[in-house]
Amino acid sequence: MNDCGAVVCWPDARIRLCCTLAFAVLVVGLERWSALLVALLSGGLLVAWAGVAVRRLLRLLLLFEGGLLLTLALLPFTVPGKVLWQGGAITLTEQGALLTGMIAVRATAVALVSLALLSGLGVSRFAAALRALRVPLALVELVLLSARYLDVLEREQRRLRVAMRARAFRPRTDFHTLSSYGFLIGMILVRALERAERVSAAMRCRGYAGRMPLPELAPLRAADLGFAIGFALLLGALVVLGHG
Amino acid sequence: MHIVDGVLAMPVLLGSAGLALVGVGLGLRGLDETTIARTGLLTAAFFSISLLHIPLGPTSTHLLLTGLMGLLLGWAVFPAICVALLLQALLFGYGGLTVLGANTLNLALPALLVGLGGRALLARLPRAASSWALLSLGAAVGALAFIGSALLVAGALAASGEGFWAAARLALLAQLPVAVLEAVVTAAALRLLWTVRPELLVAPASAV
């Protein structure tokens, strides 16, 4: 788990988290196209600035927009309004198309900014920022523990699936496949719970008292505050465009 | 089963975030140094399971198994789902920060109710119970938690705008085959757990 996946390491993790949250809350309330397009553009620029690898960006965007398409596909046809196109029982309305586009732009802008500011952060700095922002301790510990063991459990899952394949299991759409997956999942859970007993014992042996050590976040520097001020100006511009 | 940013109306967002906060707070109260590792590893396990692709006709789908989560985690299912969604936002950059509360509530509330009910029934089940009783309990847990979540998602959408209701109804119908998958897989997984480690399922949920 690297500390800083993106090329750009500043601004500070707390600033990144606060900026992302503020941006998201503001953007989901925007209803004017000018403001939405500026939000989308600034999301794109932030991603470019953060140096997210192009292939990774494309893969994530493709997945994200695919998911978006699935959730929003029906919306242009179900919102009442001025009819743009009609074919049989299906009508495409202007309001529906506009609303769908608006939601897609909002969601994409928020995803881009969180990709730019959060995904390069790494779990430990993210958790340190959460702790600094007074998120309940137990929740931060849960983030750390589950992020740390995600990889371990995924490897365990892969081993179990290789074992299934070695016994000539081929996934199909049938009852046998489903019950086999059910047994696989049950086995993953049994192993996770057994591992949890060992992990818990080891943690307590080493004097765990509800707090895992985390990297110390450096005090805020002028450059961090500069970023925060710049970001606040962007948000201010969005507010003016959205409501002015 | 995952609402994106920018869909829900502000009152729905705030209301569900408030309820989710209460649930997460209550769930965190039951956690201490001895139970946190178990909760963390189960969260990771369910997260990795949700990435598993299950073939469904020409496409594939992925499972949520929130009913089983509720059964194993009790009240801790609220923080577990919240953390899983946070990790999803962090690792995949999917956003979803403003709908974190709504998504947590929609998934965790049915999971909690079904899980607590399922626990109560399991505690009454004799150790040598017929596998049919166990399998039908598992299927009910899997299907009810999933359908509950689908209904909550549809309700949140319907409360956000009239245009969403028709879309939400169609989405509900499209989810039905997945509910069947959830039911079958949950039943099989529960049967394995009951056979291999029954003590995990009959201990009081408060000890979780």
Automatic annotation (TrEMBL), chain A:
Coiled-coil regions listed in the entry: none
TM regions (residue ranges): 33-53, 60-79, 99-121, 175-193, 222-241
Mode of membrane association: Multi-pass membrane protein
Encoding gene, per UniProt annotation: cbiQ
Keyword Secreted included in the entry's annotation: no
Pfam families: CbiQ
Protein name: Cobalt ECF transporter T component CbiQ
InterPro entries: ABC/ECF_trnsptr_transmembrane (IPR003339), ECF_CbiQ (IPR012809), ECF_transporter_component (IPR051611)
The organism's place on the tree of life at top rank: Bacteria
Localization per Swiss-Prot or TrEMBL: Cell membrane
Family statement: Belongs to the CbiQ family.
Keywords carried by this UniProt record: Cell membrane, Membrane, Transmembrane, Transmembrane helix
Record organism: Marichromatium bheemlicum
Location, primary (coarse class): membrane
From TrEMBL, chain B:
The protein's name: Cobalt transporter CbiM
Residue spans crossing the bilayer: 6-28, 35-56, 68-92, 104-122, 134-158, 170-194
Localization (cell): Cell membrane
Keywords (A to Z) from UniProt: Cell membrane, Membrane, Transmembrane, Transmembrane helix, Transport
Annotated signal peptide: none
Membrane topology according to the record: Multi-pass membrane protein
InterPro entries: CbiM/NikMN
